[in-house]
Amino acid sequence: MSAVNDTKFNSAVFLLTGLPGQENIHLWISIPFCLVYVISIVGNSFILFIIKTDPSLHEPMYIFLSMLAVTDLGMSISTIPTILGIYLFNSREISLDACFAQLFFIHSLSFIESSILLLMAFDRFVAICNPLRYASILTLPRIAKMGLVFVLRGFVLTVPLPFLLKRFQYCRANVLSHSYCLHQEVMKMACSDITVNSIYGLFITLLMVGLDSLLIFFSYVMILKTVLSVASHTECLRALNTCVSHFCAVVLFYTPEVGLSVLHRFGKGSPPLLQIFLGYVYLLVPPLMNPIVYSVKSKHLRARIIRVFVK
């Protein structure tokens, strides 16, 4: 009988969750979500357009920024169907295969974004700590190779996740606590031993997010050491100012990422609304804020944007 029930559930669906208890105002809640997605997609697309059409911005810093914009676009597109489906059409069901596909793209793009933030930290490190060799170190072919390696790293390490989940029978409550699928949550729905999934998920998280954040921290330590050795206070502030936008992007990305991961693994008694809130911040805020932060803090990019609108 158990085997029959397992097989029956395996051909069923997961149920996604919006804001519990607020179902009667889901249509109104959809308005800010729609605005966030529109601003994110338009903002990141505009950043890509400006960088592509202006040859003066074909420099390592802006090439890395365009990679970040592409990743943010992918993250937004990966989550639009389920989040807006819940709030606009009250569509909570998602098939197992669609759920596995969504979590693959969410996790792989998240890992790739972490890698791009590391590349951007390396760019600032070389520009400040070794400015005379900046052009010779960060050549276009080398940037392309680094970008390709990190993109492949993100996809290759994430590929096993849906296949590890697909081998399970799902016989427990099929209601997820988010408006989208995450590996650490879906695996808990299985009625099989999930030790391999748990260990592998933790391994790739530490290898990608943990190692990247550690190297970013190390690069900032070296940058601060170099900047503080500069005699001129003005030069010191100017050098640090070039890192502000990247530092904001790092904080916006890693804070909810780490918080959500900790809550899913260790926060069994945490309030459900806290998980839901962190989940939305993790997915929606970086794609929304990154183009705004870089447009405000980057003088050259801001000047090109103003020129487009003035024309």
UniProtKB/TrEMBL annotation:
Stated family: Belongs to the G-protein coupled receptor 1 family.
Primary localisation category: membrane
Keyword Membrane: yes
Name this polypeptide is given: Olfactory receptor
Single GO term (MF): olfactory receptor activity
Any one Gene Ontology cellular component term annotated for this protein: plasma membrane
Pfam families linked: 7tm_4
Coiled coil feature spans: none
